[in-house]
Each structure stands twice: as structure tokens, then as C-alpha cells.
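Work Package 3 (structural annotation) set out to generate three-dimensional models for the target panel prioritized at the project kickoff. During this period the team completed the workflow that converts sequence records into C-alpha cells, so that structures can be stored uniformly alongside our sequence database. As a representative example, we reproduce one entry of 329 residues exactly as it appears in the project archive.
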Amino acid sequence: MTAAAAAWAAAYIVLHPIANALTYDLFRLSRDSHLGSAVNFFLYDTPKVLLLLTGIVFLMGIVRTFFSPESTRRLLGGRREGVGNVAAAGLGIVTPFCSCSAVPLFIGFVEAGVPLGVTFSFLISAPMVNEVAIVLLFGLFGWKTAALYIGLGLAIAIAAGWVIGRLRMERYVEPFVFEIAVGQLDSRESLTWSDRAARGMQAIRDIVGRVWPFVVAGIAVGAAIHGYVPQDTMAGIMGEGAWWSVPAAVILGVPMYSNAAGVLPVIEALIDKGAALGTALAFMMSVVALSLPEMIILRRVLKWQLIAVFIAVVACGIMAVGFVFNLVF
């Protein structure tokens, strides 16, 4: 494992000179040309993002061997609002979650006695403040951006869950959810570190193997923006001077679907071209946290009134984050 980590670090260090050599020496593209800029962006960002993604997925695959949906339910069951919202948001970062698991997780939490608002804190935190977004933000924009994103993302999850809990909207949960008795499965296993490392490798195969086309597609879009979109145009549309750009970015992001790994390279290119960081991140957060497929899946257990409140509360929180980032950076 030590040798693999050293090889990973060495590969990451040499990415930039290799991308430059391929673009400007082997392909003989001009550094000042649109095509040269786009190709260099693609050749550098593709392996960089995939390396970051592979490393963090492996580590989180090991971390997740210490958690399961059942253990998460046990940790949150019986928690009061407030403390429960904080605990749920924190657990959302490290516990397994995807849109397809939204319904069984929701049913399991309700059956375990987890308050509705606490459940929503988990459902908001898990996709939005996930390890992929955090590590890619750190790699692309630095630790200050990543740290502020974590703090504000958790604040959204905690506050939105608390607000939804205060509204007492249990009547907008489909009645059958309260009638289901979910089995009390216990998935605790006695695993060696070799077993956990094997789970990490399996996570790489499952997750990276599934999302890499989105990553490459996102980087290709980002490369085109980086090479061909005029900086003044992007600054005018998504720059700090356009006060309306943050809510517009959130509205645009809600019906779209991607994941953090696929959308972050696009965000990087937008920022390079003059887009305000807060506006770009607000777009990313709305795409990741309020994806249309997840809303359709949640409709199986929630009525539209509660889904609409969920979208409105989270969207307001994301807009607040966008404005804060624009003020700070």
C-alpha cells in the first residue's frame, strides 16, 4: 500500500510537465492558440481529477467499512432535533449514499424513529458535502475554499433540516412509509485491514468505473470553455457584478443532473474565465444536491408539497452560500 501511495504521489507531481510536453512539444500546438489552451487543459485535468478521485474513493471505501445504513440508523434513531440535525449532517459526509438509495434510507430512518427534519439533514449533506467534492475542491482551488465549502454545506444541511422539522410536514410523507417494518439488519463484520483495503479497491472499481465518463465529459466541456469562451463574456454573465447570477445559477442547476466529479472541471474552467467563485459553486451545489432524478425517486415516499419545500429551503441556503463566497473571495 505504501508503494502504491508513493506511485500515486509521483504521478500527480509530473502531470503538469507531461501535459505541457504533449501539448506544445509532441503536438506542436501554440501556447497562445485557443486549441493549444483547450488541449493542455484537457490533458492536465483529466489525469489530475481521476487521480484525486481514485485516491479519495479508496480511502473512503475503507472508512465506509466502519459504517452501514443500519449502523447509521442506530446512531440517529431517537436523536432530538438540533443535536440530531448536526449528527445527521456530519454522518452524511462519510456514509454510503446515492440517489438510488434515497428511498430505502428514508424509509429506514423513519421506521427507526429518526425525526423528519433530522432525516433531511442527512439526505442534504450526503450528496452535497461528499468526499469527492471536498477533495476535488481542495485539489483545484485550495484548502480555504474546501474548508469554507464544508462549513457552509453542513450549515445548509443542518439549517434546512431544522426548518423542515419545525414546519411539521409529516402529513406530506406517503402514509405507507409509516406502516413499513424495516428489518433490523446488523451488518457489522469482523474485517482485517487487508479486507478493508480490498473494499477500497472494490469502491474504486464500482465508483470510478461508473463516473469516469462523466468526468471526461465534464473536463472536455471545461476545456472548450477554457480555450474558446472569451473571458469578458463569462465575467459579464457570472461575474461578481451580476447580482442576479447566483439565483440564476441555482435555477439553472436544479433540473440538471451530474455529480461533483463531473461538474467540478466545468466550474474550474468557468472560474478561470472570470466567473465569480460563489456563483459557480452555487451552480455546482444545486446540480449535486437538488438533482431531478433524486426528486423523482423521492416522490415515491414524499408528496409534492414536501418536495417543493425541500427544494425551496435548500435552494435558499445554496444562494446564501453563493453570496458569501462572492463576498469572501
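Residues 99 and 294 are 5 Å apart (CA to CA).
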